[in-house]
Specification:
11 helices; 8% helix; Maltoporin, Chain A
């Protein structure tokens, strides 16, 4: 496997993707030029004879086929009398026409307006008619996702699915996303959904270490998937839809359906995207007041004319180059799909680089008179990230960049960021002061090299056997392996707060492995007016996570300066063996759906799981059921003509959420001296899984021959038996223990509106609106500890508490101390504002509701699409703004000096005060653990998230030897229509459960813009 990854790397070094593409264009151009002229010609139209490009025209039962060009024209060769020609296109009724020797055959295709037989992918990769579903699901096509591509495909889903909340990390290319469906459910564990590739669960273990102290986002694995390989995404929003996945699907499922080989003429596609990335805004800084007496703060009251361009000059224009090549083809027996993708990126901070290579191969072969189908899939990924962005106070180039005293000359420290120290015979940081919060930004980006490497292989094999016409059996096996390493070298001479005098080495390497297999029987039959569909299966999953080593000498001196090896570690630094956990899960499951006259459907499912993390508790086996009912009203009544389709649905389910590894009977550990550190957690021998009970009801309406649609869902999710940590009683011999307690409720609505607003001649306008609102409530925590607060994440000045009666995302911090009249109380001696004795409630970080408005306009060969995203309500907190005020470098602090003070309704003793000295005010309020109330902002923002303008080239008229070609101009996150916070509140410094909606010297938001070229041979 290592040799395979090495070969991929060498290939990309020796053969650039541009040359690779030119070679393929040359070869396949020659093939196209030699192609024979066809025997059957014609034109395919729709509606009022508008040409329909992209229609598949096939001789039934053979691999002989083609697609229509942009004028709807086609030429089909080697057609024999008696052959049946099949015309198919998504959203159109398929037509089959017998060939009788005619030279021309024109076809007008009819729109499948009701689309009642739309097939969607559900749990375990099982295909179902969408009309039969008793729960809410939503699909997004791969083409929709790729309109304005993002290297992490999940970011492309933001605003396109109701109920899906996505936050993007500030770590740059390859970074994680925070994804939650229908609110947070668990007090102690991630509420992220399960990710599944072609029905098989994938490893998605986050290693996000970002925080107040700085750190790195190790990625979530989603960026390793090649977006060009994705055919569509299916979102199973609740446990009702995902119950067949068991406990791991308790928070919903994101199903990734990849492209497969297709029968017919071999198709070769090349897709090349070039986008540029730039900062949208930096904090509002002042450059008119400097420091006094060589201080690190800029609190002079004397104006000056100081350089202001060095902040903007620090950031660069980044770029993202994404190239992919795919080959698809086959016959009625065997199909194959191959793709290679290469991504190269540079970020907006110098020396930040990203490189990724993807290789995918899929094949499918029919045997035994087409009763047996054997399919295999191999995905190889090599991903490397250099100097991924950090956030937080320490070892972050942005603190020194923003704090730098205005009266000093920054240019002196830019070019000469290091100086040679003869005494130590090495270079040391050149900076004006020794300060634990800041360092020379150019020292940090040049002398703290960081490299994250991931090598991943996912291989699967599937056997499908048709036992009878109604009974099928499927067996699948997959293996997901990834090797990950994270290394950062901190050269000697840096910030002594975090780095030893001889340097610091942080290194981590580990492996994640998961084996998954299942066997599934499916049955489908009709008995008169009754239809029966059934699923019966079993699954086995064995995952091992974080098996490796880790070392960090911190401020302990290396034996020799700047030698970053295990042999150079001092004896008091331990090399840790890491082991995040090993879990074996086994399950049996079943599902039966009964239909009556194709208008009423009853869905019953159940699953029993056995989890190794519960072994020894007596609760390792647990069962949970679900039931759903849907009815197509338009099949039951004589509906008015405008009502094309109306479905009502409801479902109820219970599902368990498993607990972490090593909780029931925790292990001891070995310390650096070779001794044993005894476990201090009380064993939890009666541990139970968290139980989630989910109810939903909804309707699906389609009006005016399907041109308008409404999908509405109301849900109520109740999570009980939460996994809660408490401090152990004194004298118990333990420091903490766990209990099952607590209750969390999420209630909400999801609305999707679709409309074909205009469809006339060559012009069409389609629109889609997604709306979601979720209300979260912590109904109960621990009855015997009523009023107890549980910290859910904290930084200096920022804390989120879990409190009975509160909600996830409740923000707490110090407020201004006020008297009964509401006046801010000031210290009687210094005149500084006083803060409350305890941290108090400041608002909730989650939005009141979210909206996405997606539009597409088509005119002849032009297409324009745009997406507007809106988050309304909620709060966000900025430690950045607080500390910029405290250092006197914010424009706010300069404006106060210009005005002669900070206007305030205060009281000092018994004296009313209307103005406070700016330095006195801001060094108190803006202290890193100061008065957080002043830095809580409205999260509301409305932005243009995506914009794409495409032109389809008429390759036939231009005489190009191609099937299709298109050129697009694309953009993401281009501008805000409305935003109140002085930063992008949708970025997060951490994608774990802590520090959500916290700006702590995050890299500023960026916009991307560029172009995309796609050609098909």
């Amino acid at each position: 496997m290592e040799n395979c990854f090495s070969a991929i790397s060498q290939l990309t070094k020796r053969l650039s993707i541009s040359k690779f593409a030119v070679a393929f264009i040359f070869i396949f151009s020659g093939f196209a030029a030699l192609a024979q002229q066809g025997e059957l010609k014609g034109k395919v139209t729709e509606g009022t004879d508008a040409p329909l490009p992209g229609v598949t025209v096939m001789v039934k039962g053979t691999s002989n086929g083609t697609i229509t060009n942009f004028d709807g024209e086609y030429t089909l060769t080697d057609v024999k009398e008696g052959d049946v020609v099949v015309f198919s296109f998504i959203g159109m009724l398929t037509q089959e026409i017998a060939y009788t020797g005619q030279a021309n055959l024109n076809v007008n295709m009819e729109t499948d307006t009701q689309n009642l037989d739309e097939v969607v992918v559900t749990a375990l990769g099982i295909q179902r008619d969408k009309k039969t579903l008793t729960y809410s699901s939503q699909q997004v096509s791969g083409d929709e996702m790729m309109k304005a591509r993002d290297m992490n495909f999940m970011n492309s889903l933001s605003g396109k699915t109701a109920g899906l909340e996505i936050k993007k990390s500030v770590s740059g290319a390859g970074g994680s996303t925070k994804t939650v469906l229908r609110g947070n459910h668990s007090l102690s564990q991630s509420s992220d959904p399960l990710y599944v590739i072609d029905g098989v669960p994938m490893v998605n273990r986050k290693g996000d270490q970002s925080g107040m102290w700085g750190g790195t986002d190790e990625g979530d694995g989603l960026s390793q998937i090649n977006p060009d390989d994705i055919e569509s995404i299916s979102i199973l929003k609740g446990a009702n839809a995902a119950i067949l996945y068991g406990s791991q699907g308790a928070n919903g499922v994101v199903i990734i359906n990849t492209k497969k080989g297709k029968e017919g003429k071999t198709s070769v596609s090349f897709n090349s995207s070039t986008t540029f990335e730039s900062i949208t805004e930096t904090p509002d800084l002042q450059f008119t007041y400097g420091s006094e007496g060589g201080a690190k703060e800029s609190w002079s009251y004397t104006k000056g004319d100081y350089a202001s361009d060095y902040v903007d000059d620090f950031f660069q224009t980044g770029f993202n180059l994404v190239n992919s090549l795919s080959i698809s083809g086959g016959n009625d027996k065997t199909t194959a799909y191959f793709s290679y993708g290469n991504t190269t990126a540079e970020g907006v901070i110098p020396n930040n680089e990203y490189q990724k290579n993807n290789v995918t191969f899929q094949q499918s072969t029919k045997l035994l008179e087409d009763k047996l189908k054997v399919s295999s899939n191999v995905m190889l990924v090599s991903e490397k990230s250099k100097n991924r962005y950090t956030a937080g106070y320490y070892l972050n180039p942005l603190t020194g960049l923003y704090f730098f005293p205005r009266d000093r000359n920054f240019a002196d420290y830019k070019e000469n960021y290091q100086v040679f120290d003869a005494g130590s015979n090495m270079y040391t940081q050149n900076w004006f002061i020794s300060d634990h919060h800041q360092s020379n930004p150019y020292w940090l980006i040049n002398n703290q090299p960081k490299e994250d490497i991931t090598k991943r292989a996912i291989a699967s094999l599937t056997l499908d056997y048709d036992i009878t016409d109604h009974l099928k059996f499927q067996a699948r096996g997959s293996y997901d392996y990834s090797s990950k390493s994270y290394e950062q070298k901190f050269y000697a001479g840096g910030n002594s707060t975090n780095i030893s005098a001889t340097g610091r080495w942080s290194y981590k390497k580990f492996e994640d492995k998961m084996l998954y297999t299942d066997g599934i029987f499916t049955y489908q039959n009709n008995f008169g007016d009754i239809s029966v569909s059934g699923v019966l299966g079993a699954s086995y999953q064995h995952g091992t996570y974080g098996d490796g080593v880790q070392v960090d000498n911190g401020t302990n001196n290396l034996l020799y300066a700047n030698e970053f090896y295990f042999d150079n570690l001092p004896t008091n630094v331990q090399v840790h063996s890491t082991y995040a956990g090993e879990i074996i899960k086994q399950g049996v499951f079943g599902n039966v759906q009964l239909g009556y006259k194709d208008m009423l459907f009853l869905d019953v499912a159940g699953r029993n799981d056995w989890s190794s993390s519960l072994a020894g508790t007596g609760n390792e086996s647990y069962f949970y059921p679900s039931v759903g009912l849907s009815g197509i009203v338009t099949e039951m009544i004589d509906a008015p003509e405008f009502l094309s389709f109306w479905k009502l649905r409801t479902s109820y389910s219970t599902v368990a959420n498993e607990v972490p590894f090593n909780v029931v009977n925790p292990m001891h550990s070995i310390n650096s001296g070779g001794g044993v550190d005894r476990n201090t957690q009380q064993p939890f021998s009666n541990l139970k899984p968290e139980m989630i009970r989910s109810f939903e009801v909804g309707t699906d309406l389609r009006l005016f021959d399907g041109r308008a649609g409404l999908d509405f869902t109301y849900y109520n999710i109740n999570s009980q038996d939460q996994f809660i940590t408490l401090d152990a009683p004194s004298g118990s011999g333990y420091t903490y223990y766990y209990i099952n307690a607590g209750e969390v409720v999420n209630k909400g609505i999801e609305i999707t509106l679709t409309g074909n607003i205009i469809e006339k001649g060559d012009f069409a306008w389609n629109t889609n609106i997604n709306f979601s609102r979720n209300k979260n409530e912590i109904v109960e925590l621990v009855p015997e500890f009523e009023g107890k607060q549980i910290s859910y994440g904290s930084s200096e000045g920022y804390t989120t508490y879990i409190v009975a009666g509160g909600s996830f995302g409740d923000l707490y911090g110090y407020k201004f101390r006020r008297n009964d009249a509401g006046q801010i109380m000031l210290d009687e001696e210094s005149g500084a504002p006083l803060r409350t004795a305890e941290r108090e409630y400041l608002g909730n970080l989650e939005p009141k509701f979210s909206m996405g408005w997606n539009n597409s306009f088509d005119y002849k060969q032009f297409s324009l699409s745009f997406l507007v995203n809106a988050k309304i309500g909620g709060k966000a907190f900025s430690q950045t703004e607080a500390m910029l005020d405290g250092y006197g470098v914010s424009q706010r602090s300069a404006d106060a000096r210009d005005a002669g003070g900070v206007a305030i309704d205060g009281i000092q003793g018994t004296t009313a005060v209307s103005s406070v000295d700016p330095k006195t005010y801001y060094t108190t309020v803006g202290d890193r653990n100061g008065i957080a109330e002043a830095y809580v902002y409205d999260r509301t923002n409305i932005r243009l998230s995506q914009l794409a303008l495409s032109y389809d080239l008429d390759v036939r008229k231009l005489g190009l030897p191609l099937q299709a070609a298109s050129f697009s101009v694309v953009g993401q996150n281009l501008f805000f229509f409305y935003k109140k916070a002085p930063f992008d509140p949708e970025l997060t410094m951490s994608t774990d459960m802590n520090s959500q909606s916290l700006d702590n010297f995050n890299v500023p938001a960026t916009r991307t813009y560029g172009f995309n070229l796609k050609v098909t041979f």
